[in-house]
Amino acid sequence: MKSMILSAYGSMPQLQEIEAPVPEDGEVLVRIVAASLNPLDVKLQRGLAHDYFPLNFPSAIGTDLSGVIEKTGSLTSRWRAGDKVIARLDPTRGGAFADFAIVPENQLVLIPERIAMETAAGIPTAAGTSWQALVEYAGVISGQTVLIHAGAGGVGSFAIQFARGFGARVIATASGDGIDVARRLGADLVIDYRHEDFADKIADIDFVLDTIGGETQQESYKVLRRGGKIASIVAPPDDTMAKAYSVDAGFIFHSSNGARLSEAVKAIQSFDVAVLVDSVLPLSHFDQAFARQASGRARGKIILTI
Q1: Residues 113-172 pLDDT 10s
Q2: 47/63 Cα distance (integer angstroms)
Q3: Can you spell out the DSSP letters for 182-219?
Q4: How many CB atoms lie within 10 A of CB 54?
Q5: Which among 190, 135, 142 is positioned nearest to 159, based on CA atoms?
Q6: Pair 304, 279: CB distance under 8 Å
Q7: With 0-12 CB in 10 A as exposed, 13-18 as middle and 19+ as buried, what is 244?
Q8: 116: left (phi over 0), alpha (psi -120 to 50) or beta
Q9: Minimal CA–CA distance to 191: which of 167, 206, 208, 213?
Q10: Does 3 have pLDDT greater than 90?
Q11: CA distance linking residue 40 with residue 37, whole number of Å
Q12: What is the enclosing helix (H) or strand (E) of 244?
């Protein structure tokens, strides 16, 4: 089978022929239909995530996939050949940008019927991270006000829709055509961060989802109410500032979790959440897709068809 292989940090992954894997007990073999890129893929390629996800070379890459179960291991009871599923693979093993992948049976989730298989590949990491931040960390509920940075991005686009589904008031930051995107997704107020200082326009926020880090994270403490919460998916928040502003601060380190992904998918169905897709390209255009992801300008998810 074919798979995108990274030979060393800093090199570009290349499509190579490798031996097709065989599922063992508790595993399934998935014929991949589509896979999506994430910021983590860029960090892995550059070696920036080595402390968290050290790679052994040559290394297959890619975490998020959608596909059809081809074969199950002998003790696998829940899944059957032909089931249409999504999954997030272990980043240290990768393998989503390939013809087939081995997936532990507890990491699989059925694709919602109304969502196309290609589009579904954009769900696992972005929706799972958003769910982890809003539900597991912040416990966002109806009546609260949340600020979501980069609302037109992969995580931000899910966060806007989940928060709206919970009954929260949603404020998002965005720029360019991302402003209209964030509005369409349901943000009550969208702040153009290139021309406006969000810290001067809002206050008494219950929860901030930081997807940018740096100065944006530092300024976000100012808009929180006392006792509010901030979660970053980019870098651990500053505990000193959290204490100074009397808020809770947490770092969302997302890991593959089938139960969490299942809950996120249920919410996608019940809230009629849309998967925001930036572009769909064939795997042969991997370099183009990777460059788009690395640019930081993607509006939602970049999908690669296999």
Answers
A1: 899 999 999 999 999 999 999 999 999 999 999 999 999 999 999 999 999 999 999 999
A2: 16
A3: HHHHT-SEEEETTTS-HHHH---EEEEEESS-HHHHHH
A4: 11
A5: 135
A6: no
A7: exposed
A8: beta
A9: 208
A10: yes
A11: 8
A12: helix 239-244
For residues 249 and 99, give the distance between their C-alpha atoms in angstroms, rounded to a whole number. 41
The SS3 of residue 22 is coil
Q: For 31-68, what is each residue's pLDDT tens digit?
A: 999 999 999 999 999 999 999 999 999 999 999 999 99
Task: Give the position of tokens 């508790």.
Answer: 26
Omega into 236 within 30° of 0, i.e. cis? no
The pLDDT of 246-259, averaged and rounded, is 94
Distances (CA, A) of 225 to 185, 201, 204, 238: 25, 14, 4, 17
Q: What is the pLDDT of residues 5-26, one digit of tens each?
A: 999 999 999 999 999 999 999 9
Helix (H) or strand (E) holding 231: strand 224-232
Q: How far is 223 from 201, CA to CA, in rounded Å?
A: 9
Res 135: pLDDT: 98
The bridge status of strand 205-210 relative to strand 224-232 is parallel
Radius of gyration of the chain (CA): 19
Residue 73's pLDDT is: 85
